Amino acid sequence: MPNLLRLAKEGSELAGVRAPSSWAPSSFASLLTGTGPWNHGLMQFQNTLAAEHVTVAESASSMGWHTALFSSDTRLSAARGLTQGFQVTEVVDPGLDAAGRLAQATHKLLEQAAHDGRSFLIVVVLADPLPPWPMPQAFEERPRAGSGLSGGESLEYLAGMGKSMTTQERQGLLALHDSGAKRADRALGSVLDSLKGLGLEHKTLVVATSLCGTFLGEDDFVGEGGSLAEAGIHVPFIARGPFVAPAREIQASRSLVSLAPSVLEFMGAATPQQVFDAPSFLLELRGVEAQDNQSVFGEMAFEPSIPSLHQRAVHERAVIAGGFKLIEPTGPGSVRLFDLVDDPAQSKDLAGSKPKIVERLGREFAGRRLQPRHAKL
């Protein structure tokens, strides 16, 4: 991925970032508000982000900034309250040309912002290249011969592979995933070139991340929203911008929820009435030594809209602290504990052999900021 590598060389990478959910709409609400799913409440298809939650886009708009949301994920909609504060919203159909169309829309707004001399906040979301966005047959790169996949399999077929996937089928699935990732990387390159051409390269904070992970057979699942396992929540995070330390990698565990307060701090926004569920990490991006003493939380209470193989009910919460990860059911199920240092793939459950760690991490949930929803600024 040449453009991601370019961004990492020029900026800082947070290698330990976790999304608060493996379902994109819930994670996007956290990214916009700086609050976890346990606070903003958008955890199921029928949920919406309540109007009293202040989004980063609303803060930027109140400061006179251009704000825009360009997306190929139709779930990030006004009906779910996820466009609050964006003056411009454009949703394109997912498919082979989605990345290019999103990059073109971004370039046009950058031109307008450069002409007007106004600051801008642009959020670009390219839908995940695996089911259900878009259908698998849209991929430009077919799986290699012998992979067991043709590239035209149905969603149900791919999702049903979770428990019985062969090595060859997994390789084919990875090829499909990589195809979409390459298109996203080309779109990122187009945006970076636009910033450079318009003289905005050294004035702009650029963040490349993911709303959640994609299961490619891990946890016996294929797709998005399967659980709070690492495959679903451990996401890439690279930032470049004014005073951001170049070519720096930070290993400490951090939450994607921190992005909102970090961006607001970068903007110089006054947020006296806002309560965040994770602190800003802007100083760390600018070179201050990271302190690995933050607990990172996630929670899901997801029920599929239509029961199917590529959607399943998930009712659990997780906390990462001190190198361990505790996953605790909020419905039926058992507690699971993993050592992320020695077992990053979460293959060995230690809950039975380390009860004191289970008890200690379980107490962490009581320390989450369950604050009242804040009022509009």
Description:
The protein has 377 residues and is of the alpha/beta class. Helices cover 30% and strands 18% of the residues. The chain has a single domain (2-290), classed as Alkaline Phosphatase, subunit A (3-Layer(aba) Sandwich). It has a 4-stranded mixed beta sheet with strand order 5-8-1-9, covered by helices on one side. Strands 10-11-12-13 form a 4-stranded antiparallel beta sheet, covered by helices on one side. The longest helix has 31 residues, at 167-197. The radius of gyration is 20 Å and the shape is globular. The protein starts with a helix and ends in a 13-residue tail after the last helix. Mean pLDDT is 85; it is low at 130-146 and 370-377.
Summarize it.
The protein has about 375 residues and is of the alpha/beta class.
Which helices and strands, and how do they pair?
Layout: H1 2-10, E1 12-18, H2 24-33, H3 37-40, H4 56-62, E2 66-71, E3 88-91, H5 98-116, E4 120-125, H6 155-159, H7 167-197, E5 206-209, E6 215-216, E7 222-223, H8 230-233, E8 237-240, E9 248-255, H9 259-267, H10 282-285, E10 296-302, E11 314-321, E12 324-329, E13 336-339, H11 355-364
Parallel strand pairs: 1-9, 2-3, 2-4
Antiparallel strand pairs: 1-8, 5-8, 6-7, 10-11, 11-12, 12-13
Helix pairs in contact: 5-7
What's the gyration radius in Å?
20 Å
Total number of domains: 1
- The parts where pLDDT drops under 50 for at least 5 residues are 130-146, 370-377
Mean pLDDT rating: 85
Beta strand %: 15-25%
Q: SSE string, helix = H, strand = E? A: HEHHHEEHEHHEEEHEEHHEEEEH
CATH architecture level-2 label: 3-Layer(aba) Sandwich
Strand order of the largest sheet: 5-8-1-9
CATH superfamily: Alkaline Phosphatase, subunit A
CATH class: Alpha Beta
Largest sheet: 4 strands, mixed
Q: Please report the distance between the alpha carbons of the first and last residues.
A: 40 Å
What's the CATH topology name? Answer: Alkaline Phosphatase, subunit A
Number-wise, the strands total: 13
Spatial shape: globular
* Secondary structural class: alpha/beta
What kind of assembly state do the chains in view correspond to?
A: single chain
Helical percent range? Answer: 25-40%
Number of helices: 11
